């Protein structure tokens, strides 16, 4: 069902706009080939934007499922753990140094922006994990350290913007909102490659993720190499998040929201990876469609997902606090 929803959103995303294309025109152009004008609209303007939205959403959904599963905490997402902020800080530094271009593939940042974002995310993950280590990693300590590191990185990012020239600052600020505007096919390939490589690697950890829900001692007794497993999970989550951020900017709450919805729909003990990816793809693509068609003015998808995700986070926190008081 989720896959069908994604397919429908793909067609709607291509239809959305002022060109007057019908569903038949879109399907004919995609599978058979329309006239030159239709091919330009579909393949050069609309399809890259929808493709980036689907890939970014899937990457963030899988990354969120991985971090929530290995930490056994629904709040431990790449956003809260600082990975998103680390990738964003690295990318903003590249934008400022690169002369004001923000789309992946623009100018001198054709290869550099995804790589720098990955480096920023990896360094942040190492710092957060290292500061959280006390003969093991407690999920709440991990979250608190992540919040502190995120705040520091946000300050660094804002400092870079303040020190940048006006055109560079404007480009960085536009990118930081989280938007699919202006993406091209060059934006698609880094996210597609990272998802193609990291998703199968993440799926090899499915059994270990299931066992670690029982606790580290039990999972070690059942033959799980916990530290090696965590390293693989963290690398997958960081690379998926960082490359996604480099393509679209930080789109908030997708990595938090998608795994929780997937877990409730699947009725499983932890968020399923593939379902989380599909729901993440649907959330980003649907949010982009809403932002550019259903509102009086065009709104970046990052704002739409924040409007939807923030109340859900508040509800989850309130629900957990109520449950803890009831148990006590």
From TrEMBL:
Chain segments annotated as transmembrane: 48-68, 80-105, 111-131, 143-162, 182-203, 231-251, 297-317
**GO CC terms of this entry:** plasma membrane
* Entry membrane topology: Multi-pass membrane protein
* Homology family: Belongs to the binding-protein-dependent transport system permease family. FecCD subfamily.
Single GO term (MF):
transmembrane transporter activity
The protein's organism comes out as Nocardioides acrostichi
Question: Mainly localized where?
Answer: membrane
What InterPro entries does its record include? ABC_BtuC-like, ABC_transptr_permease_BtuC
| Official protein name in the record | Iron ABC transporter permease
Q: Which Pfam families match?
A: FecCD
Which processes are annotated in GO (biological process)? siderophore-iron import into cell
Q: Does the keyword Transport apply?
A: yes
UniProt keywords (A-Z) are:
Cell membrane, Membrane, Transmembrane, Transmembrane helix, Transport
Which compartments does it reside in? Cell membrane
């Amino acid at each position: 069902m989720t896959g069908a929803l994604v397919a429908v959103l793909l067609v709607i995303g291509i239809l959305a706009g002022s060109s007057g294309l019908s569903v038949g025109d879109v399907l004919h152009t995609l599978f058979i080939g329309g006239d030159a004008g239709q091919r330009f609209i579909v393949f050069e303007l609309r399809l890259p934007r929808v493709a980036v939205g689907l890939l970014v959403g899937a990457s963030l959904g899988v990354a969120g499922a991985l971090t929530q599963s290995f930490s056994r905490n629904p709040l431990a997402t790449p956003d809260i753990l600082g990975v998103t902020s680390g990738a964003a800080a690295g990318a903003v530094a590249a934008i400022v140094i690169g002369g004001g271009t923000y789309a992946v593939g623009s100018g001198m940042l054709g290869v550099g922006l995804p790589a720098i974002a990955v480096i920023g995310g990896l360094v942040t993950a190492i710092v957060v994990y290292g500061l959280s280590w006390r003969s093991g990693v407690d999920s709440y300590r991990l979250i608190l350290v992540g919040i502190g590191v995120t705040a520091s990185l946000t300050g660094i990012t804002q400092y870079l913007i303040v020190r940048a020239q006006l055109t560079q600052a404007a480009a960085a600020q536009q990118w930081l909102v989280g938007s699919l505007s202006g993406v091209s096919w060059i934006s698609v390939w880094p996210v597609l490659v990272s998802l193609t490589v990291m998703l199968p690697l993440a799926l090899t950890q499915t059994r270990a993720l299931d066992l670690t829900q029982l606790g580290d001692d039990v999972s070690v007794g059942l033959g799980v190499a916990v530290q090696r497993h965590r390293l693989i999970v963290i690398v997958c989550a960081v690379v998926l998040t960082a490359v996604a951020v480099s393509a679209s900017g930080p789109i908030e709450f997708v990595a938090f929201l998608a795994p929780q919805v997937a877990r409730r729909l699947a009725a499983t003990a932890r968020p399923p990876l593939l379902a989380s990816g599909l729901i993440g793809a649907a959330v980003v693509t649907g949010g982009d469609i809403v932002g550019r068609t259903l509102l009086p003015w065009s709104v970046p998808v990052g704002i739409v997902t924040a409007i939807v995700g923030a109340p859900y986070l508040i509800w989850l926190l309130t629900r957990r606090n109520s449950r803890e008081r009831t148990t006590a």
